[in-house]
Write a structure and sequence with these properties.
Blueprint: E1 7-12, H1 17-28, E2 38-43, H2 49-62, E3 67-73, H3 76-79, E4 85-88, H4 100-121, E5 127-130, H5 135-144, E6 154-156, H6 159-173, E7 180-181, E8 184-186, E9 194-196, E10 201-203, E11 209-211, H7 212-216, H8 219-223, H9 225-231, H10 233-241, H11 247-262, E12 270-275, E13 288-296, E14 299-302, H12 310-334
Parallel strand pairs: 1-2, 1-4, 2-3, 4-5, 5-6
Antiparallel strand pairs: 7-10, 8-9, 10-11, 12-13, 13-14
Helix pairs in contact: 1-11, 4-5, 4-12, 5-12, 6-9
Bound molecules: ligand NAX.
């Protein structure tokens, strides 16, 4: 069989800890397929280029068969050139004493520049996932400054929240994580996110589906400690590891892009931050809000018609409100 043409994959924040766990997944074929060669475009800031070169030395030493070429750069115009996929991991970290507004300000500037560069040099079909926090609003800013690329090509990562929620439910129900399907993350990748199991099911080996509500049999937990635990899991990892989630974040980025590339399975959906158009679940237009989606041939469609309880509605409103405030602050800064 003829070899496939390599695709151009950009990873930003290439010297950072998430990238360090993500790059091997890409290079092994766990994201774009085991027969898909890649040209890696690695972007970081100028002072980190020495570290990026060290990462490249290690990538070379791994002798990955799928790696065709590696470009390291501190220039977004070089990094995004003819890109098919862009994983925007790099961002300004929140330092002690920094207000959320300051974080938004610093990052809005970064993602404005990257959006403008994507607009100029990336393929118009580029699929973008924003990981760097505040991920949803950074994705919004990126797309604002890339008007020639459809808004549907910009997403924010909430897959890690989804994986955390699935793992917690699986543990509680005494099943394998892979059996837990259709957990939804609504809203922002922040502590206002709403992990919703009202439509989630546990699928047994013979294909039988049991609602998570029934399998867990503890609504107080599902409506209380479970939601809190998912919302604060990132902080719990930092407390234990003294570093933020990296291995799990990288796996989630890989899974997010894998499902975008290969599609969702029949009867299943996944969650990602997508640009709202005001027509789904009463959520206002113009924010990047995590929703349940299905994907076919690279096209993302929001799952429609799910029944939303009053409990869920309140939680969705709270996270929508936060995203609208973030949008206002960020757009004021960059315009
Ligand atoms: P690190 O601090 O280890 O790495 C970040 C890298 O980004 C650094 O090498 C830095 O130099 C680079 N960088 C900064 N500004 C840049 C720019 N303008 N262009 C290119 N690169 C730039 O952080 P890491 O642990 O890898 O986390 C990266 C981001 O992911 C952070 O913003 C973090 O908050 C966010 N996360 C998002 C998650 C999500 O689910 N959406 C979960 C994990 C993670 O917390």
């Amino acid at each position: 069989m003829a070899q496939k043409e390599p695709i151009n994959v950009c990873v930003t924040g290439a010297a950072g800890q998430i990238a360090y766990s993500l790059l091997p997944l890409i290079c092994r074929g766990n994201v774009f397929g085991e027969d898909q060669p890649v040209n890696l475009h690695l972007l970081d800031i100028t002072p980190m280029m020495g570290t990026v070169n060290g990462v490249i030395m290690e990538l070379s030493d791994c002798a990955f068969e799928l790696v065709n070429k590696i470009v390291a750069t501190d220039d977004p115009m070089v990094a995004f050139k003819d890109c098919d996929a862009a994983m925007l991991v790099g961002a300004m970290p929140r330092r002690e004493g920094m207000l959320r507004k300051d974080l938004l300000e610093k990052n809005a500037g970064i993602f404005k520049v990257q959006g403008a560069a994507l607009d100029k040099v990336a393929k118009k079909t580029v699929r973008v996932v924003v990981v760097g926090n505040p991920a949803n609003t950074n994705a919004l800013v990126t797309s604002e400054f890339a008007p020639s690329i459809p808004k549907s090509q910009f997403t924010a990562l909430t897959h890690l929240d989804q994986s955390r929620a699935r793992a917690m439910v699986a543990e509680r129900a005494g099943v394998n994580t892979s059996q837990v399907k259709n957990v939804i993350i609504w809203g922002n990748h922040s502590s206002t996110q709403y992990p919703d199991v009202e439509h989630a099911v546990i699928v047994s080996a013979d294909g039988a589906r049991t609602s998570v509500k029934k399998a867990v049999g503890d609504e107080a937990w599902l409506h209380g400690d479970f939601i809190k635990a998912v919302q604060t899991r990132g902080a719990a990892v930092i407390k234990a590891r003294k570093l933020s989630s990296a291995m799990s974040a990288a796996k989630a980025v890989a899974d997010h892009m894998h499902v975008w590339w290969h599609g969702t399975k029949e009867g299943e959906f996944t969650s990602m931050g997508v640009m709202t158009d005001g027509s789904k679940y009463g959520i206002n237009a113009g924010i990047v809000f995590s929703m349940p989606v299905t994907i076919k041939d690279g096209v993302i469609s929001v799952v429609e018609g799910l029944e939303i309880s009053d409990f869920s509605r309140d939680k969705m409103r709270a996270t929508e409100h936060e995203l609208q405030q973030e949008r206002e602050t960020a757009l004021k800064i960059v315009q």
